[in-house]
């Protein structure tokens, strides 16, 4: 671990440390503690004994008490922070605004523009020696103004750069805010002044006594004082995946950033922040990439003292965000890198589609601009030197060059307008805006793209406890002494013996951190702290008019002889105590069917044990447990067993110990369904999302709750099975999971009960890898326990519970539900769909402007030797289009209507046929208007023609009208772009979005200023009211035209079937398509090579699979499943606005319905293999990519690409 460098780095600090230590008056220095923490196992135990006597000795040196903790006195805490450091790691410095400006300047098109503008500036100051003989002579005033165009271009470049930089800066700031918010969320239990309190991780100091339990992520280094059955996953530091057993006498060293996988205990905090093991690694990494500052600090041996840490942004100070395990670096770095270079793997579905689109449009723009320049130059040369036979005068060369530069600038502006640099911006703005707003809806988003993936979700696998239910457990029924009480009995009815055993069993055999506190406000419910099931049992003790605290005070936690903590394998918890006579008693509690299996006796009415035969057990299950479970109660059995003191039992031999128990009682605990859940589930089902419940509870309880929630309705043909049955159905003789078997189970599965974490992971993986449906399923999963980590990681979107969730679960998740509520997931779906729609709106608007501006500039230049829209005007249009429009359209708030449609699915093209219709329709309208104005405008308005103007002529009214009309048409079209599904009312809800309104009005105001006062730089002359009236009228025409377009049904426009490709063709020369294909095949081949083995296996099985899958499909979906629960193409067909069109021409996505009309696709034979091929292939790629969350999102792995390769 680079010990040498550590010790070098710190040996220089030792002097300061020791001196400061004597000031601090603590008996041990930072350095000594660090050396201690680098030891492991028995070495550490020996060292503690040699140096400090024992743990108490170390506690005394650190002036703390092992049972009562620190006093919590403020001056003492400050002194500790000063001597031993704070528990935070200074963050990487954010990029400064200037760095961001510099990055924005790296844009190629901007650089070209800057160069052209500089040349133009330089030439405008050059006076040819030949006096007035220059071609296109003009008077003095105009020559003076020659420099304005160059300057104006430079100025507009500066604007664009500043806007881009500002956006990046705010993005960075938001990200840091999010980071610090996540860190503030992390709290830890610490004992101070004999009270257990929850502290933010940053406030923990050396000398604190921390309570650690199952599922914690250790925030500091420490030494174990007392532990029960403690197992730690140290893979994040050592890379070893085996869990390490910890005990105070064997291996007491606990390291920050490791996960508690089992058990509980108390530790003395010995190192925090930069001195802890994680902190040391971070310092070596320089908290990310080693910046110069950190290196200097290391050399001079300055330990970053608290003051300098405060200087760096305190809020974002990266707390002990522990290193993530082998799966993938540490979150912040990952997120940072994701921003720096959105690598192949990190791209979400949407970003992948957008990048591809932007590249295609960019290429088309480049070709167009190159052709424009060539035509202009040739025309000029031919016209001047061939037709007019002018000689090439040397002294006129600069003038000719000036013309060429002007042509070049026109070409570059065509390129600038064609390249939609607003696309990534729109995504960023939309996501950032959504993330910010989702905070208010109790969704804390950790990975930006999760927000958008959620919009495509087709399945949600939800936990029951705490997500669908309130997680407030109350005991409502019990079976004691051979009597089944439907409500909690009066204590007088129970025998004293039974009651005493019951009270002791519950009070001692539960985590001592679990308590019931009096209500905070009058008339409120008492507060439940700790494990909610245990709270329910403690509530039972209180209901029986007894108190659990005196029992616990009599036998404090450190006197418990042995604890078998609850885990998902045992499904029970047991505690052994030593009785005064030297014998032992073990209390046990757990899931009733599991504990009862191990009982051989049961207490009768007098409280005496009687024999409990297997047949009694069956009767008990039928008469007591099943009726309770069918009422939705969770059943817990409490039992005990006595052991002789001599010989002492072998405690490690668990199977023998946890057997031959005596049952005391069975308790039915109610956990009511959250009131808002049933409606949220109805909304999900309406939105085409299947909700499945995966729980560890009894199958009857689970079914009862599922019916209450509305996940299943009586009389429907759905599966409710438990983990055993699930595994029996999906595994073959060898015990391996088979996808084909899985495909028979998951479509109808709604409730999976008594499931282990592996079952959950298997189910999620099975649904994701399935090829049954046309679209790959997108699965969201909720989880709260440590063991849910793998499933959360595997899912497309993992939701962790903010309140009940363990740190491990939060670490593995993408979104944290701060209120643990299922209805917040529905909000996340709404926001996700909103992001997708916002981007589509922006695309519809942007592409219209692109198409029109490029065609106008191109044809105008070819026919009139001058672009009707000047460079600066183009840049202004670009600014409206890119920055303002993305702001306006990306911040539309979501509406309930978003939940009324099915998910889009992964391979739906970005540009639907309705959008294509809108883009083409509006494009045609704008082109007609602009060309009419360009060629006959001077006659209509009775003004001078602006065509064929000499080089530096003053701006003409004619061209000003064209520019003004163009901009106003875009403004009104922006309102049209608010709807993308062919809705009529485009003003619907417009005032709910103040940003949109202010941007539209703001743009209009600036446009007036530009036209009236822009003058030479903007090539505008002021217009009178009448002309303004006409311009506005033509702009308003957009809204009317929008209604006309909306009346044309998509089905009439057969050519729109190639929709995606059509828009491209407007701007795309043929050879481009070829390149795109090759490029895709490259990606796909790369994937192929990685998955070759799997491929061949898959291909061998394809023949049989085609038949099986097809037969299976038809049978499955004919009789068994409601048609609308399957997001299929047919459903889209019923709503014309959801027609699936594809941007890539030759993908038979619409084969199901359009086969008859389209002769080119009648070869039905290759089609069915293709369908399955596509399916198998995508399945395979997904299996390969299990390592990365975004496997399916990565471009090449998506079924779309694989289909192309197979074609």
From TrEMBL:
It is a multi-pass membrane protein. Gene3D superfamilies: Calcium-transporting ATPase, cytoplasmic domain N, Calcium-transporting ATPase, cytoplasmic transduction domain A, Calcium-transporting ATPase, transmembrane domain. Residues 1-23, 290-344, 1120-1207 are annotated as: Disordered. Residues 1188-1207 have a biased composition (Low complexity). Keywords: ATP-binding, Calcium, Calcium transport, Calmodulin-binding, Cell membrane, Ion transport, Magnesium, Membrane, Metal-binding, Nucleotide-binding, Phosphoprotein, Translocase, Transmembrane, Transmembrane helix, Transport. InterPro entries: ATP_Ca_trans_C, ATPase_P-typ_cation-transptr_C, ATPase_P-typ_cation-transptr_N, ATPase_P-typ_cyto_dom_N, ATPase_P-typ_P_site, ATPase_P-typ_TM_dom_sf, ATPase_P-typ_transduc_dom_A_sf, ATPase_P-type_domA. The chain crosses the membrane at residues 364-382, 407-433, 842-863, 919-937, 957-975, 995-1015. It comes from the Eukaryota. It catalyses: Ca(2+)(in) + ATP + H2O = Ca(2+)(out) + ADP + phosphate + H(+). Residues 293-313, 334-344 have a biased composition (Basic and acidic residues). Its main location: membrane. GO terms for molecular function: ATP binding; ATP hydrolysis activity; calmodulin binding; metal ion binding; P-type calcium transporter activity; PDZ domain binding. Residues 1-22, 1160-1187 have a biased composition (Polar residues). Residues 49-125 form the Cation-transporting P-type ATPase N-terminal domain. Its EC number is 7.2.2.10. Catalyzes the hydrolysis of ATP coupled with the transport of calcium. PANTHER family: CATION TRANSPORTING ATPASE, PLASMA MEMBRANE CALCIUM-TRANSPORTING ATPASE 2. Belongs to the cation transport ATPase (P-type) (TC 3.A.3) family. Type IIB subfamily. This is Calcium-transporting ATPase. The gene is atp2b2.
């Amino acid at each position: 671990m680079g010990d040498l460098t550590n010790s070098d780095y710190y040996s220089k600090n030792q002097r300061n440390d020791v001196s400061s230590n004597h000031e601090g008056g603590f008996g041990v220095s930072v350095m000594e503690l660090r050396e201690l923490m680098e030891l492991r196992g028995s070495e550490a135990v020996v060292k503690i004994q040699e140096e400090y006597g024992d743990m108490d000795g170390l506690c005394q040196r650190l002036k703390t008490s092992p049972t009562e903790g620190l006093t919590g006195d403020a001056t003492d805490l400050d002194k500790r922070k000063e001597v031993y450091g704070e528990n935070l790691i200074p963050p990487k410095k954010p990029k400064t605004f200037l760095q961001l400006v510099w990055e924005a300047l790296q844009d190629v098109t901007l650089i070209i523009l800057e160069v052209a503008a500089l040349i133009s500036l330089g030439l405008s100051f050059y006076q040819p020696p030949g006096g007035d003989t220059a071609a296109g002579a003009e008077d003095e005033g105009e020559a003076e103004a020659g420099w304005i165009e160059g300057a104006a271009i430079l100025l507009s470049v500066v604007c664009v750069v500043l806007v881009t930089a500002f956006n990046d800066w705010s993005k960075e700031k938001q990200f840091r805010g999010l980071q610090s918010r996540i860190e503030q969320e992390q709290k830890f239990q610490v004992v101070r002044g004999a009270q257990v309190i929850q502290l933010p991780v940053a406030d923990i100091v050396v000398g604190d006594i921390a309570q650690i339990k199952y599922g914690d992520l250790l925030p500091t280094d420490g030494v174990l004082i007392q532990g029960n059955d403690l197992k730690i996953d140290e893979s994040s530091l050592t890379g070893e995946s085996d869990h390490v057993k910890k005990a105070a006498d064997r291996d007491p060293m606990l390291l920050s950033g490791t996960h508690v996988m089992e058990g509980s205990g108390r530790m003395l905090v010995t190192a925090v922040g930069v001195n802890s093991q994680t902190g040391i690694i971070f310092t070596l990494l320089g908290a990310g990439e080693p910046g110069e500052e950190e290196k200097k600090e290391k050399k001079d041996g300055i330990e970053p003292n608290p003051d300098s840490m405060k200087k760096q942004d305190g809020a974002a100070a990266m707390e002990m965000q522990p290193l993530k395990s082998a799966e993938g670096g540490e979150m912040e770095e990952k997120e940072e890198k994701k921003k720096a270079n959105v690598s192949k793997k990190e791209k979400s579905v949407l970003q992948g589609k957008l990048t591809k689109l932007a590249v295609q449009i960019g290429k088309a723009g480049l070709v167009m601009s190159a052709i424009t320049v060539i035509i202009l130059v040739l025309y000029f040369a031919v016209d001047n030197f061939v037709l007019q036979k002018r000689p090439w005068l040397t002294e006129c060369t600069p003038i000719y060059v000036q013309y060429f530069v002007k042509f070049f600038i026109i070409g570059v502006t065509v390129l600038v307008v064609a390249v939609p640099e607003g696309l990534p911006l729109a995504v960023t703005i939309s996501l950032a805006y959504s993330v910010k707003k989702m905070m208010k809806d109790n969704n804390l988003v950790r990975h930006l793209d999760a927000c958008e993936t959620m919009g495509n979700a087709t399945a949600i696998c939800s936990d029951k406890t705490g997500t669908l239910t309130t997680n407030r457990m109350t005991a409502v029924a019990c079976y004691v002494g051979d009597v089944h009480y439907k409500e909690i009995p009066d204590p007088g009815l129970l025998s004293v013996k039974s009651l005493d055993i019951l009270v002791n069993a519950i009070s001692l055999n539960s985590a001592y951190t679990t308590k019931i506190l009096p209500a905070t406000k009058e008339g409120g419910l008492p507060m439940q702290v700790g494990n909610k099931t245990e709270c329910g049992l403690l509530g039972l003790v209180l209901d029986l008019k007894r108190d659990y605290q005196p029992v616990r005070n009599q036998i404090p936690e450190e006197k418990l002889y042995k604890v078998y903590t609850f885990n998902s394998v045992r499904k029970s918890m047991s505690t052994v105590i030593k009785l005064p006579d030297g014998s032992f008693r073990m209390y046990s509690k757990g899931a009733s069917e599991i504990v009862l299996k191990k009982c051989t006796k049961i207490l009768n009415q007098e409280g005496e044990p009687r024999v409990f035969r297997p047949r009694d057990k069956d009767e008990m299950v039928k008469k007591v447990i099943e009726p309770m479970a069918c009422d939705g109660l969770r059943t817990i059995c409490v039992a005990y067993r006595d052991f002789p003191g001599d010989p002492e039992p072998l405690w490690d031999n668990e199977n023998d110990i946890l057997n031959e128990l005596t049952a005391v009682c069975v308790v039915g605990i109610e956990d009511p369904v959250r009131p808002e859940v049933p409606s949220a589930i109805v909304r999900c089902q309406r939105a085409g999302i299947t909700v499945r419940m995966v729980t560890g509870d009894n199958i009857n309880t689970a079914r009862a709750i599922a019916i209450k929630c509305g996940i299943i309705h009586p009389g429907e043909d759905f599966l409710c099975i438990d983990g055993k049955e699930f595994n029996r159905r999906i595994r073959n003789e060898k015990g391996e999971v088979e996808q084909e078997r899985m495909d028979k189970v998951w479509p109808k599965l709604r409730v999976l009960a008594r499931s282990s974490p592996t079952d959950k992971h298997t189910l999620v993986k099975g649904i994701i890898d399935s090829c049954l449906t046309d679209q790959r399923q997108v699965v969201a999963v909720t989880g709260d326990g440590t063991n849910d980590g793998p499933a959360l990681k595997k899912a497309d979107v993992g939701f962790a519970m903010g309140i009940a969730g363990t740190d491990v679960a939060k670490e593995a998740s993408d979104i944290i539900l701060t209120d643990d509520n299922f209805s917040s997931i529905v909000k996340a779906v709404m926001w996700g769909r909103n992001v997708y729609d916002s981007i589509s709106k922006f695309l519809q608007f942007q592409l219209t402007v692109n198409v029109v501006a490029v065609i106008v500039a191109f044809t105008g230049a070819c026919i009139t030797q001058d672009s009707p829209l000047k460079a600066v005007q183009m840049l202004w249009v670009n600014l409206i289009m890119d920055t303002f429009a993305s702001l306006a359209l990306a911040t539309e708030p979501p509406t309930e209507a978003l939940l009324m449609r099915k998910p889009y699915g992964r391979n739906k093209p970005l540009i639907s046929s309705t959008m294509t219709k809108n883009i083409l329709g509006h494009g045609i309208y704008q082109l007609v208007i602009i060309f009419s104005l360009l060629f006959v405008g001077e006659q209509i308005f009775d003004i001078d023609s602006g065509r064929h103007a000499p080089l530096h002529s003053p701006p003409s009214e004619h061209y000003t009208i064209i520019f003004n009309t163009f901009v106003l048409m875009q403004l009104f079209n922006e309102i049209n772009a608010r709807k993308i599904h062919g809705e009529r009312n485009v003003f619907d809800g417009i005032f709910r979005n103040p940003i949109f309104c202010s941007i539209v009005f703001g743009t209009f105001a600036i446009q007036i200023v530009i036209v009236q006062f822009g003058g030479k730089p903007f090539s505008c002359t002021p217009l009178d009211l009448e002309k303004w009236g006409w311009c506005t009228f033509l702009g308003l025409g957009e809204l009317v035209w929008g209604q006309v377009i909306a009346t044309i049904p998509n089905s009439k426009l057969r050519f729109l079937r190639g929709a995606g490709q059509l828009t491209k063709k407007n701007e795309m020369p043929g050879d481009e398509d070829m390149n795109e294909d090759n490029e895709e095949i490259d990606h796909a081949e790369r994937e192929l090579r990685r998955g070759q083995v799997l491929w061949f296996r898959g291909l061998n099985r394809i023949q049989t699979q085609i038949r099986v899958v097809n037969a299976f499909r038809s049978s499955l979906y004919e009789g068994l499943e409601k048609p609308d629960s399957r997001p299929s193409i047919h459903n889209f067909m019923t709503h014309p606005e959801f027609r699936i069109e594809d941007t890539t021409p030759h993908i038979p996505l619409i084969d199901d319905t359009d086969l008859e009309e389209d002769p080119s696709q009648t070869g039905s034979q290759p089609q069915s293999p293709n369908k399955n091929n596509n399916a198998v292939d995508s399945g395979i790629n997904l299996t390969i990519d299990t390592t990365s969350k975004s496997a399916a999102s990565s471009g090449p792995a998506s079924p779309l690409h694989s289909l192309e390769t197979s074609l």
